[in-house]
Amino acid sequence: MHARLLPMKLTQVAAQLYTVRDHCQNATALAASAKKLRAIGYTAVQLSGVGPIPAEEIVTIMRDAGLTICATHEPSQQILDEPEKVIDRLHRLGCGLTAYPYPGGVDFTDAAQVDTLVRKLDAAGAKLRAAGMKLGYHNHAIEFVKFRGAPVLEYIYAQTSPENLVGELDTYWIHYGGGDVVEWTRKLRGRQPFIHLKDYGFTSENKPTWCEIGAGTLPFARIIAEAEAGGCEWFIVEQDTCPGDPFISLRQSFDYIKANLVA
Question: Which stretch of DSSP H or E encloses residue 82?
């Protein structure tokens, strides 16, 4: 039995900067974007898709805008092969949470490659843990390729220590891959300090597409309740592509969350 936590607070809702990546490629643009996000109501961000700006400058920009850096994404290969560099960057950012963003170049039909990935993720996560940090796994749909009779995502979590690898479920990609988002959130109880809130909709051509929270089909009240029960700390809004100005999309998502998903 898991004790239910207090309802999600707006201060736990963050913006994934990948959504506004085209507006974060230099320090001036990042500062302007940070101010826009704070004006919408966000108080935290996840760093991803940001240009080559020194960590110390990013920290200053976010502090001046009133934003917390709650998490990052770091280069996949660097996490696996040079976790010490990741630890150093996180120290400089004052952030203790990151995620392996994408299994680029990994063939999930090749058992040796899967096992190498699992081993390296666990080892990197152990090093981050020793430094007081956490490594998460950010899924896409590709992890729903079957491996030994079940989605490879199940194997990744089963073969790594919960102490060394936590989950950063992406709600859109879980659904796109054929998974049940509520059930997956339940599976990772106690192992999911952050989650990507991303809604799933359709175009007029009947093709799936990303959309603002509340504009699609995903049951966010149930997803968030399950994540809360499992101890999730950060609820990170992301939209891979937007129909227009991405800041308008992030505002629409924030306003929906504020009106419908927090106490």
Answer: none
